[in-house]
Amino acid sequence: MTPYLMQDHALRIPDILSYAARQHGDLNISSVDEDGQFRLQSYRQTKARADQLTSKLAAEALPHQSCIASLALNTRRHFELYYGVTAAGHILHTINPRFDPHQIQFTVEQAKDSLVFFDPAFAAQAVEIAAKSPFVRRFICLCEKADLPDVSLPGLIDYESYISEAVESSQRAEHSERDGAFLCYTSGTTGDPKGVLYAHRSCMIHALAASSPGNFNISPQDVVLPCASMYHATAWALPLITPMNGARLVLPGAQLDGASLLDLCAKEGVTLAWGVPTIWKTVLDEACRQHRKLPALKRVYIGGSAVPPDLKRRFRDELDVEIVQVWGMTETSPLGVIATSSAKVAVMPEQARTELLTNKQGRIPFGVELKLQDEAGNDLPQDGKTSGRLMIRGPWIVNQYFGHNKPATDERGWFDTGDIATIDPDGYMQITDRTKDIIKSGGEWISSIALENTAVEHPAIANAAAIGLAHPKWDERPLLVFTPISDAEITADDLIQFLRERLPKWWIPEAAVKRTDLPLTATGKIDKKVLRRDYENFYK
């Protein structure tokens, strides 16, 4: 056997926190805890507490690679689970608390979760799990003993008491870098949620790539605020990237309203933040209402939904903050592309550069391959004009769904994202629609995304969704469902006229419907399945 020319060290999640405790142990994690109180905890303290959890889990004598569930928000205790569970050789199954009871039960049963750690706010969901999942050994509430909810659950104990029972041990479970680390589920909009099992190796490679200057560009001088949920696709790997790069971490807990986030950003000097457009629109509106600036904040990374151009413009003009669009999905860990400048784009005239980085989801980073296919499986040109099914592969892209017995990819390892997109010669990708959302009317394609983005440019519109509905003459026609900004005066006819001035004639819906709110999926996206059901006979 040929000897390795370089040392062969496994890539494992717990090594990140060990490094952070050793190299910048005094640096604080700021956390808004489950009780609403603000607490500081250093990386060194966090490592010690995660070690206690690892030792306690070892005493549980669970089989190697057991699934352990969390039902929690972005707090320091949830952060400790990321490292304590994986160091014990187990898999952290981060349950999305916005799933409906059936979806939660489905994921718990498929994962065969042995333990469930939960925030007090999710005690009711924990009780539902216990009633239907007798294989769950015990429930641990992420709080102190005094805050333990009054519920009956098998082996119920508060987290602080639980880890205090640990017997000190320097031993860590032996496991491979290809062992599972985190189990995240898709939103299940077209059926039951699908589990994606991230390995230690894939997570480490993803975190190293994502933190690079051409991607998230996180430095030791940064203060990082993830509003992206730690229960969904590991919050863009920020709980790994931040300690890896010696940056401070700010965890907002349940306080995700505009006023609370504005105060938190100002108090902690947040420089980089992540979240979905709806969250950051509330922060912007609150900042404008209070006539406040956020001088420390440099960039806000937005994923989960397309970035409305007006939101990007307002952040730049009113707060001097750059909005950076990112695209990915649970199956891509999630980084797929990011809207940062290549060398060529960086020297473009400002208006052209801004337009490109606003309209396109981003460029392909190292580690990701993208291509386009037609319905017959033929590769399509990457000319920036030709649309096709978006295919992806790479070391942090799903190969097979958890619990499934066949690959999720084709024979060459390409995963079908379900998106329709273009890719230009410089590697910038633009989503034109979801496969299931694109509207075909009278033989012509209509982009639901373009309709929605144009609608929310209206100053009175908070959110909008375009859906294709059966039509007796045109096969399908778009219907625009919208919610106005609070107290705004706008009619459906007003919005239709606004669209007529900006879009091709055949794109314009015959009608628009005003609602006080739009249904959301468990991941915070507009649930078009519900809208199609609600309005299926609208044009009949």
CATH architectural label of the domain at 14-28 and 39-199: 3-Layer(aba) Sandwich
- The number of distinct β-strands equals 25
Distance between the termini: 72 Å
CATH class annotation of the domain at 14-28 and 39-199: Alpha Beta
Q: Compute the gyration radius: what is it?
A: 24 Å
Q: Mind telling me the CATH superfamily name of the domain at 14-28 and 39-199?
A: ANL, N-terminal domain
Shape: globular
Q: Give the DSSP E fraction (strand runs of 2 or more residues).
A: 15-25%
Overall structural class, as computed from helix and strand content, comes to alpha/beta
> In DSSP terms, counting alpha (H) and pi (I) runs of 4 or more, how many helices?
16
CATH topology of the domain at 14-28 and 39-199: Rossmann fold
- Characterize the biggest β-sheet: 8 strands, mixed
For this structure, the quaternary state is single chain
Strand order of the largest sheet: 2-1-11-10-12-13-14-15
Mean of residue pLDDT? 92
**Unreliable stretches, pLDDT < 50, 5 or more residues?**
none
The helix content, as a percent range, equals: 25-40%
Give the SSE map.
Layout: H1 14-24, E1 28-32, E2 38-42, H2 43-59, E3 67-71, H3 76-87, E4 91-94, H4 101-111, E5 115-118, H5 123-132, E6 138-141, E7 157-158, H6 159-164, E8 180-185, E9 195-199, H7 200-210, E10 223-226, H8 238-244, E11 248-251, H9 258-268, E12 272-275, H10 277-290, E13 299-302, H11 309-319, E14 322-328, E15 335-338, H12 343-346, H13 350-359, E16 362-363, E17 369-373, E18 388-393, E19 415-423, E20 428-434, E21 439-441, E22 444-446, H14 448-455, E23 461-471, E24 475-484, H15 492-500, E25 512-514, H16 528-534
Parallel strand pairs: 1-11, 3-4, 3-5, 4-8, 5-6, 6-7, 10-11, 10-12, 12-13, 13-14, 24-25
Antiparallel strand pairs: 1-2, 8-9, 14-15, 16-20, 17-18, 18-19, 19-20, 21-22, 23-24
Helix pairs in contact: 1-2, 2-3, 4-5, 7-8, 9-10, 10-11
